[in-house]
Hints:
Elements: E1 2-4, E2 9-11, E3 27-28, H1 31-38, H2 43-51, E4 56-57, E5 70-71, E6 75-76, H3 80-83, H4 92-109, H5 114-144, H6 147-158
Amino acid sequence: VYPVSKGDAFNLVAFTKGERITEGWSGHADPGILAAAMRGTAPGLVKLVEIAGPWLTWPLHTVEQRQPWTMPAGIALIGDAAHAMTPFAAQGAAMAIEDAATLANLLADFPGDLTQSLTIWEHLRRPRIEKVLKRGALNRLAWHARGPVALARNLVLATRP
């Protein structure tokens, strides 16, 4: 939860499991579904969900990592087109910028060999992307854990200065 509109309103972001309910980027959400998902959390937060609105939903999408990012015709997919990731590492835009910068440097280094540039680029970028994907998965677990995992996380964090 954080303030927006000069403090006149608040934005609440919640991640819940569910079915895709819209074909577009976002759609109207049923506040009852969100309130039900938040039961067992802070009562004030559940009440906020019940009385506030309207709520929107944005499905989170990822891209299968086994697919190639380059095509024989000299096409390269960068950023979310190649490796869409969940927002838990907050690195999606940064990865697109890194993709573009790395590819630009390789194209400059090998101006006569597009295929070589693309092959090297994908070979260089995959380990970095995999590392960021793993960080996102760890952050998701840390920030959105429930039950015993959440209790263990809270106990560990309580001991840190």
